[in-house]
Amino acid sequence: MIPSPMELLRSHLSKVRIPEPTNRIYKQECCISFDTPRSEGGLYVDLCSFLAFGKEYVGWNYEKTGNPVYLHIQQRRKPVREDRPLKKPTLLAIGMEGGFDNQEPEYEETYDIVILPDYVTLPFPSVELPEKVRLAVDSILIAEGAERKGQLASWTAEKKKVSAYAMNLQQMNNGVVVPPSGWKCSKCDKTDNLWLNLTDGMILCGRRNWDGSGGNNHAMEHYKETNYPLAVKLGTINADLDGADVFSYPEDDSVEDPLLAQHLAFFGINFSSLQKTEMTTAERELDQNINFDWNRIQESGQEVEPLFGPGYTGLVNLGNSCYMASTMQVVFSTRSFISRYYEKQSLKMAYEMSPADPTLDLNTQLTKLAYGLLSGKYSFPAQEMDEVGDCKTTTSSAKQEGIPPRMFKTVIAANHPEFSSMRQQDALEFFQHLLDQVERGNAEKPGFDPSRSFKFIVEERLQCPSGKVAYNKRTDNILSLNIPLHDATNKDQLEAFHKMKPEKNLEGKEMFGFIRANDEIVRPRVPLEACLASFSAPEEVHGFYSTALNAKTTAIKTAGLVTFPDYLVLHMRKFVMGEGWVPKKLDVYIDVPDIIDITHMRSRGLQPGEELLPETVSSGEKMEPTNVAASEDIVSKLSGMGFNYLHCQKAAINTSNAGVEEAMNWLLSHMNDPDIDDPISHDSKTVELMSIDETSVETLISFGFQEEVARKALKTSGGSIEKATDWIFSHPEVSSSVDTDATSSSTQAGDPGVPDGSGRYKLMALVSHMGTSTQCGHYVAHVYKDGRWVIFNDSKVGASVNPPKDMGYLYFFERIDS
């Protein structure tokens, strides 16, 4: 006898869970694809694990877990009313009466209970459903989705600080009992955006927002009158008190109140019975940042032909995430990443290998992103509807919605304080962090590691006045290049600018940056060849200790490449330190050809007739101590910042005059040393390297850092492992400038897995940056594919009309196979 749908559901109740406040609930996006409730077939939420799956993938979850009961969520677009007026805005606000009409489409949401494997369906809501199922579904629908919770956590950026007023907050026993609902401002008729003052129990409306929404400032005015410091936003309180929005007026910030439950109970509030109905401050800020489409109120520049299909999928900007979007578009245009995460690994294979929660697995999320970008499934013109609800015919100006890489961002940025925030980041640092995480993820199968296609070995040659040499090798994945402005090819135009500037100023015409000739900005034009030459050019290394001379001297350093990678990434050092230690961006063009040949940059290694520097001081020779004097330049700059002069001298000496930043790091970590105020003992300072704990060196090496880098970091941070780790992460260029005080030529960085081949390359992509700093502005990627240049500007993908090849920040070259 075939059981009825209700009997079948009851037989599976053991596989149904009622979510707890701490459970992560996914209901907005499939965990292994970019399907949403608006996709064809909707979304299926597992009522046991609370993971969501698209219709095409929910069967895989049933096969893997045996969980049969799902909440099926579908959203269908509502037709627009024929009588909907298009009013002229009279108020600078969005989505408000008199303001801009954002004309966002509305969706109707429907629910069903579905039992696999036969997709037996029961309607929801229904009083006939078992109570456990009703409670589970109600909890899922009320709860904040894990996808959005992650965004909010990133947007808040830093963990809320415990308020200084929370632990000793005095509450007035005035008989106030706050009801569980029906709240209204005590001074006006506002019934939303209400704040409960935790001192006297007054319920008042919040601040007025910039767009005219919000409250009437009565809560703020009450604080100014009474100085009662803390208030909690009504509607944000539920069993998960961590989500409650507590604001401290004197600290002017959202804060944590460890005694919030006690403070609420004082006014008769049973927080476990409340349900969240209001946005927190972080949620409102997030909505205002993301939902406002500036393209609706300003004209974009040059229109490009939109492109759709496999390999032409845009990425939604999650809020200052263009650094990630531009990098990933380029990475997934390389053969190595396409092969690893798309051609040779199916979504199902990745999911079957994933742990219980695939949203936290890097391999799964990289595969998901690869399929999202490369399959073409999500690359189609966004449907627009006319006033009567019919779909408009797509035109050449149609745009795509793109896919939101939220889960990937959560995984790749896990435990990284910067990438997990909503702040703008350096695309270079993200690219290197990505390669590092991918390498770790493929450690058990290094042959599958696609990050190896970017690796190469650099060899540095050091020659001291004795004529003897030392060779050091290191592995890198980017070639960071200085920009020699003195090699500009348009010096005549630049000289004309300097001559014309006084004349223009006399005419009352301001000149910002560089001269404009025929409306074209004139900047220095430096050939890429000059930048590459600067990498290999001889460089003086002062303070190099020669074991042949048994003394510090000046050595000559040159560099070359032992191997050539499959993909050569060139980083243009456009951001330099200006006067007053203020970072500035070089306003310069780089003339980059489509094809380059760096064969001449291959390192030749030890040559016949060359003699290596001895590893140690010659036997019988004793190294005499030599006093190290503090650099007056470093000391004066540090003392000018307010530090004690003696302390500054010690900092310079203990870091071997490496630089102001290194000395400051040492100073900050030794401020409390018991001997910090003792006079400098010149007898104790010699030309020998600062004593470094070998255990600390081994610890950093176990983290994956090179030995030379580890020693330099420990040396400049006073031996602290924590500060040394921070120093390495904050100095990505350190891998290209390791400590050259090493006297041995035995440093080997040979890696049999590093590729090698021809030195001829073709330009395949570039990442450009607009803005004054890598921590602000905007990143855009251009990729050469299918015989044309394509621009990837977040969710916008189109045929590039004039790719800015001379304005790149990162250039990606693909080796030309001979």
Which features does this protein show?
single chain, 818 residues, alpha+beta, 9-stranded mixed beta sheet, 5-stranded antiparallel beta sheet, 29 strands
Strand content: 15-25%
- What is the residue-averaged pLDDT? 80
What's the number of helices? 21
Distance between the termini: 70 Å
Radius of gyration: 31 Å
Low-confidence stretches: 90-100, 285-300, 385-389, 505-519, 617-626, 683-690, 735-750
Total beta strands? 29
Helix content: 25-40%
- Report the biggest beta sheet as strand number plus sense, adding barrel if it closes: 9 strands, mixed
Structural class: alpha+beta
Q: Shape, please?
A: globular
Region (Disordered): 736-756
Enzyme class: hydrolase
InterPro entries: Papain-like_cys_pep_sf, Peptidase_C19_UCH, Ub_carboxyl-term_hydrolase, UBA, UBA-like_sf, Ubiquitinyl_hydrolase, UBP13_Znf-UBP_var, USP
Binding site for Zn(2+): 185, 188, 205, 218
What does this structure look like?
Residues 736-747 have a biased composition (Low complexity). Residues 161-271 form the UBP-type domain. Residues 736-756 are annotated as: Disordered. With 818 residues, this protein is an alpha+beta fold. Helices cover 25% and strands 18% of the residues. It contains 21 helices and 29 strands. The strands form 7 sheets. Strands 11, 14, 20, 24, 25, 26, 27, 28 and 29 form a 9-stranded mixed beta sheet that branches. A hairpin with a 4-residue loop joins strand 18 (539-546) and strand 19 (551-561). Helix 10 runs antiparallel to helix 11 and helix 17 crosses helix 18. The longest helix is centred in the middle third of the chain and has 16 residues, at 491-506. The protein is globular. It starts with a helix and ends with a strand. Residues 90-100, 285-300, 385-389, 505-519, 617-626, 683-690 and 735-750 have low confidence and may be disordered.
